[in-house]
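Training component of the fellowship. As part of building independent skills, the fellow (R.M.) carried out the full modelling exercise for a liganded target. The chosen ligand was pyridoxal-5'-phosphate. The inputs are recorded below so that the supervisory panel can assess the work.
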Amino acid sequence: MTQALETIQNRMLEAEKEAGRSLGEVCLVAVSKTVPPLRIAPVLEAGHRVFGENRVQEAAQKWPDLRKKYPNTHLHLIGPLQSNKVEAAVGLFDTIETLDREKIVRLVAEQMRLQGKVCELFVQVNIGEEPQKSGVSPGALAPFLELCRDHGVSIAGLMAIPPQGVFPRPFFEGLRDLAQAFDLKKLSMGMSQDFEEAIACGATHVRVGSALFGAR
Ligand SMILES: *Cc1c(COP(=O)(O)O)cnc(C)c1O
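Fellow's submitted model of the complex:
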């Protein structure tokens, strides 16, 4: 498993080099959803500290104990956030990548105030405008970002999952252009199948699960 970590880190360096970017500047979010703590531990032992989970409840079961043993672990929520989970999510996660509607923005703002905690926040964009997928559609991003401002919520960047089974590059470029247009610095895009492509398009965070932990 730590061999897989090394392989991915090397592929990321190669992609950064090829894109003329600074080596090591892209953050690997190791997606540990469905992976039991026993199989996460070797990656922590190897020194990796940034992980992504897609379910609040699963993360709440796995991570408090792991964090006692491995401090300074940075957790990203990469799955949809329901209103009844916002309190737990703000308590548990350092970064929430999936803001996508006003109610959640309002509740996250409220919980950050109550808990005295500032999470790093991304807006999820439905970059392929797929009806079944969550995320703010590109055309609705401007008013959504304004609404975030109204709630006193600072947005660090954008996150997206491009449509499956098609060449992802135009979607990565689309997300990058949106981030540039709104002066947002961070871009979470690229998974096991396409993280090198995403790095070529300016990703600052790639979310890699199966290439690291094996098939789910
Ligand atoms: C599962 C998941 C990933 C990781 O996918 P892999 O193909 O296993 O690398 C990345 N992003 C999100 C939002 C996910 O749910």
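The panel noted the following from the submitted structure. The pocket of pyridoxal-5'-phosphate is lined by residues 31, 33, 54, 78-79, 161, 191-193, 207-211 (CB under 6 Å). The first helix runs from residue 2 to 18.
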